[in-house]
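Team,

Forwarding the record for the chain on the shared tracking sheet. I've put the sequence and predicted structure together so nobody has to dig through attachments.
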Amino acid sequence: MLTDAPGVPDVAGYRDVRTVVGGNSHEVFRATTPEGREVILRVYGARHRGPEAPGVHASVLMLVRGLVPAPELLEVRGPEAGTDGLVVTSVVPGVVLDDVLATCDDHVAARLGRSLGEALGRMSGIAMTGPGDFLDYSLGRRVWQPGSESLVTWLDLWSGRAPLADLGAPALARLRRVCAEADAILAAAPRACLVHGDLSPRNVMCDPATGVITGLIDWEFAHAGHPMEDAGHQVRERPDSVFSTALLEAMNRWLPPAEQADVETLRRRARAADLYWIIEIASRLGEASATYTCHRILSAIAASGDLLGDTGS
């Protein structure tokens, strides 16, 4: 669904540039090439992530080509002479997964979960030498900020903010014990792989008729991280669903034998990997809709002392 809107950029070589409805970044547009092909433009200007961001995005798309359903990279431009960086990709066919899961039956949800689980399993095999953000098109890494060494130190870094401090000392003590437990769980997979980094069901396209995932989109937050991190985002959104269970079962078959486990163990591992994001996002309560969800999850974990305390498990 598209709309004409103020602030649409004039991008040389493309016509009929228009805003994609539903995007939060204000960087994504749909356009037409001189030959009449519909494409997606990501213009790196609304949020400042440095001049290397387009090159990182392009390199990640080339890395996953043929392994994971993703847009085809068509063009990349670095920022030059005051112009914005640009990544041009193909249009991924299908429907937004979040919209389908909101209304589909369990049979379709399970098929979609299996399809996405297979994609995440393949991606978990794209090995990295260690965790961190990508520096440039070569995908060299920089270590995350001090405090990210463990979930315990990560919680200590953010717990001074009012949204977490207001949980109270007893709740934070329980949460610290859960973080220590989660650190031990994550040690079951002591390696890093390519991570999408923003894999909500809104960034996944699918064909509801076949139950097949047609593409993972919006890769600009990709980095090297834990193999279960992207699965953790799916568990966060639909923790006990048929969809997430099918996803974990399908992903399990692609993991190294030493990392394979039953679904409940994988669900806890996925939550542990996602807990870094849940803590940080919850500490920014009120800044965006996701902060309320993460604060609710973290509050439930702190109250129960259970890593899956918000799911009833």
